[in-house]
Specification:
This protein is an alpha+beta fold and 205 residues long. It has three domains: 1-30; 34-128 and 179-199, Type IV secretion system, VirB10/TraB/TrbI (Lipocalin), CATH 2.40.128.260; 132-176. Helices cover 32% and strands 31% of the residues. The protein is elongated, with a radius of gyration of 31 Å.
Length: 205
């Protein structure tokens, strides 16, 4: 009977030791090779992509422009390739409609033989340069020209009528003008951000 009790105690103590060890192991800090969501990489574009020529699911690649470090240790060296893919694309159109381009970065190539799945996005979404000032100047200039012509005409309220006609013409000019395409140029350096945790294989550089 006493031997059974002793065996039970030994088992209980062993179980406690095992559980304690597991808790300690779980509490250990994550590996330097675990990159959290939100980690940013500076990358360089290989070949230009733009909303005029791109199609959904077209692929491209970038390379790491600045070594990626975690807790003071380099985990991804300069020159490492990351594959990208076009997720949405539409060219610029008339009516001042700018082009649209959305991309995702889905594979990290630590070497030529293997690719590690990842999910990265641009830190700054692609936007066409603003046309606000240009549109304002076009409409205002047309209105002013119309007012001058109207005031020179020998009709009642000629200035106001001319200004209205000129403004309408300027607005029409804006509406028939084509928007601008968006692009990432060859060798352009920009930032991407991890949207999910990325676990790298341990390696030496």
């Amino acid at each position: 009977m006493s031997s059974i009790i002793s065996s039970t105690k030994v088992f209980a103590v062993s179980t406690l030791i095992f559980l304690s060890s597991s808790l300690v192991a779980t509490a250990q800090p994550d590996s330097i090779y675990t990159l959290p969501a939100g980690k940013r990489f500076r990358v360089k574009m290989d070949t230009e992509i733009n909303s005029r020529a791109a199609s959904v699911n077209d692929t491209f690649f970038v390379t790491i422009a600045e070594a990626v470090s975690n807790r003071g240790a380099v985990v991804i060296p300069v020159g490492t390739r990351i594959d990208g893919r076009i997720e949405k694309a539409s060219p610029a159109g008339f009516g001042n409609a700018d082009g649209r381009l959305e991309v995702i970065f889905d594979r990290l190539r630590l070497n030529l033989d293997s690719a590690l799945p990842m999910e990265g996005r641009l830190v700054k979404p692609l936007r066409a340069p603003s046309r606000g000032v240009f549109a304002f100047l076009l409409i205002a200039g047309s209105a002013a020209a119309g007012a001058i012509i109207g005031s020179a005409a020998d009709i009642e309220n000629g200035t106001a009528i001319g200004a209205a006609i000129g403004a309408g013409a300027g607005t029409g000019g804006v509406l028939i003008k084509k928007g601008r395409d968006v692009r990432i140029r060859t060798a352009e350096v920009f930032e991407i951000e991890l949207k999910k945790e990325l676990v790298l294989p341990a390696r030496e550089f």
